[in-house]
Specification:
With about 130 residues, the chain is of the alpha/beta class. The chain is built from 4 helices and 5 strands; from the N terminus they run ββαβαβαβα. A 5-stranded mixed beta sheet has the order 1-5-4-3-2, covered by helices on one side.
Length: about 130
């Protein structure tokens, strides 16, 4: 099934142009972030629980990684593994996590929400973009 990711950057300078190549590496620890940056990553996607496809990391993990790497760090906003159909409580968690991670200094966000018919939930994705 197609997974829709919405990338949102908090800094317009981080938008890529069609002439630039971004090597984004998914990381789940301080050490993996250091390894990725040292290996040439130009952006990191910070997640927890990679074995479940990635979930929202902690603000503490983000803060430490931001101290030790110089590349932009985008964070995944996903309350659990599994499908991308979120009930009202899970969506509330996503909103709170998004606020906390923005305050903690993330450079951008990665998330996706689907409707029951498999289409992108544009209403809730747009809401998160405005948060």
């Amino acid at each position: 099934k197609f997974l829709y990711h919405t990338l949102y950057t908090l800094d317009p300078r981080l938008y890529c142009t069609c002439t630039s190549i971004i090597m984004e590496v998914c990381v789940d620890s301080v050490q993996s972030a250091l390894n990725a940056a040292e290996g040439g990553a130009t952006r990191l996607e910070l997640c927890a629980n990679l074995m479940e496809g990635g979930t929202t990391p902690t603000a503490g993990m983000l803060k430490i990684i931001k101290r030790v790497v110089s590349v932009p760090v985008f964070v995944m906003i996903r309350p659990r593994g599994g499908d991308f159909l979120y009930d009202e409580h899970e969506f509330a968690v996503m909103k709170e996590d998004l606020k906390a991670l923005k305050e903690a200094g993330c450079d951008g966000l990665v998330f996706g929400i689907l409707c029951k018919n498999g289409s992108v939930d544009k209403h809730r994705c747009s809401y998160l973009l405005r948060t």
